[in-house]
Amino acid sequence: xxxxxxxxxxxxxxxxxxxxxxxxxxxxxxxxxxxxFIEIGSRLPVFSCPYASGSPGGxxxxxxxxxxxxxxxxxxxxxxxxxxxxxxxxFIFFIFLNKAWCGxxxxxGTLQDWITKLRKFMGFSFVRYDEMSFKxxxxxxxxxxxxxxxxxLAINNSFFGLPVLPxxxxxxxCQICPARIILxxxxxxxxxxxxxxxxxxxxxxxxxxxxxxxIFLVGSFVKKRFFCFFCPMSALQxxxxxxxxxxxxxxxxxxxxxxxxxxxxxxGITEIADDVLSKNIVKDDCMMCFKCVEACPExxxxxxxxxxxxxxxxxEEGFFKRYGETDDPxxxxxxxxxNSNEESKKENND
Length: 350
What we know:
Helices cover 52% and strands 6% of the residues. With 350 residues, it is mostly helical. The chain folds into two domains: 15-237, no CATH class; 247-337, Alpha-Beta Plaits, CATH 3.30.70. A three-stranded antiparallel β-sheet has the order 3-4-5. A two-stranded parallel ribbon has the order 1-2. Helix 3 (60-68) packs parallel to helix 9 and helix 9 crosses helix 13. The N and C termini lie far apart (45 Å). The relative contact order is 0.13. The model is unreliable at 340-350 (pLDDT under 50).
């Protein structure tokens, strides 16, 4: 009986409010934790940027770029085992939270959500991609992930007889990653806002870094989770998401395709509503924030599970506790359950 009461309390709770506090604590740890002698590791599945002096660790991507900056003979020697070891450490971290690392922990993700709150406070509307643009843009992060692997390899190894790349591209993604420039600012460090005139390569890479940081800030203001569409960490995580223990499960038989889940989704994933066949509904752009579960009024249509244990489910009671029993357009828009086109249709029908 007590177990049932606890589960009912969780299902009826406001997970987004809980998420806000988790994000706040995580941001503090990953930006200032180093000042409090917190050390987490250097193979993390989030943008814990070592360029920020208060960082308690480093993201996996910077480590793997350094490791791949080696000759073939080194990579395929016993020393190359370190690459597999690093991937194993990344996987151990990742397997527990799946892509919720993006939705709850990543400092860059949290910063984008705060920029969204600022935009809403200022009264500006946001941009949504159309379906065709969405499908095209989602491929970019995989291209960036491939280049992140190939460019460090091409510094010490020739591909197809081509010249090796300059050493100034040794960590290509870190050089253009917005975390390198933006996160140190929270430590009062502006040293990464510069153009390195050492050579042509460093001029180009550091200039690109400044441009990407500016695009990140502007893009995040007009589009929810703008950078996540292009994030190679998100692409890498999705490759392992099917075997993680935290899962987002859908029962298509209970789905009425009302569309609430896709409307509240910060990245605009339509498959969450349209796909009634897949059980594991985590898509490559999903950050597992679980807003979709909160917004679903159908009993058990969406569930968050750890292995096979149900920890948070969609319920009719929970839906009405969170959103209220009203069809007022302004109320629905406030909670993301009604967009401008649907509001016009509703007014015409009324």
